[in-house]
Amino acid sequence: MSARATTGRPDPAGRYAGLPKAHLHVHLEAAMRESTLREFCAEDRIEVPPLVEYADFTAFLDAYGLLIGLLRTPERVERLLDEVVADAAAQGVVALEYASIPEKAAAFDSAEAALEFILPAAAAAGRRHGVWTGAIVSIDRGAGPEHALAAARLAARFADRGVVAVGLVADERASPVGAAAEAFGIARDAGLGVVPHAGELAGPEEVRSAIELGVDRIQHGVRAVEDPRVVELLAERGICLDVCPTSNVVLGVVPALEDHPLPALLEAGVRCSINADDPLLFGVDVVDEYVLAGERMGVPDARLVDCARTSIECSFAPDDLKRDALARIGRSADLRQHPLAEQP
Ligand SMILES: [Zn+2]
Hints:
Elements: H1 3-7, E1 21-27, H2 34-43, H3 57-70, H4 74-90, E2 93-100, H5 111-129, E3 132-140, H6 145-157, E4 163-169, H7 181-189, E5 193-198, H8 204-212, E6 217-220, H9 228-237, E7 240-243, H10 245-250, H11 262-267, E8 272-274, H12 279-282, H13 286-295, H14 301-313, H15 319-332
Parallel strand pairs: 1-2, 2-3, 3-4, 4-5, 5-6, 6-7, 7-8
The structure holds zinc ion.
């Protein structure tokens, strides 16, 4: 069931799609269109995997693994990038930071070869569709310390060719964020950002650890809400949480959208961006998430505009692009004029 089916009103006036925004927390392979998934599965004579409902986090990771396996030729990767960027443009995304694990890219002999292909192909798609793109090289926390260091060194080598940050993904209960400290140091020395997943499957202590490591943003981070001191620290330091509400519901981090901590975090002064995480696997795109934040979580329009502004400010996009996007938001942020204010 998609969020669109849930709300029955897919952003009818294009209000949220018209709001310039950055999409900062989205995993490339899982942003595949469902039609493309079906086509690839038919070509490869494999069954289309079940989507949106997963028995546990491992079942979710299995579904993700299947998507990675489908991307077994450069042509498929190029098509994926073009479609993902086109879909982003249609949703008002002006800056797209897509995460991937290059060493898992099935179409290429090495992680290096994967990045050498993906980065220019993403940039070309960006030029075609009018979206700035930056890659986040994900460190797989389940793959051990050598992988973490190798991934960070790889990201560093591509720092001036389209990689903007390193991330940290997979089950954080298996390996705490602190285990990646050395890898983060390598990334930082190369001028890259650091944007780990934390405070999703593990609690607020992991968010605190991430803050203490000096990260730029935290992907998810929503379980910070369980410790008011960590919430305060986030607000004080201005560290952005790249929040993905539907993902948190599907994976059981929160019981329902109505219970999601996004409104409380915003109320406490924590900067948050709104994101889709794995659009194909969770049945939502980034505009759906804005709609749901408003309709199901009660986030007022003005706060949604703030989230869009935060997403731009906290992205690694070039300054001139940010200035332009913020000016466009600013011009429409007077709620009497803003299309979001015309809601019934
Ligand atoms: Zn994620």
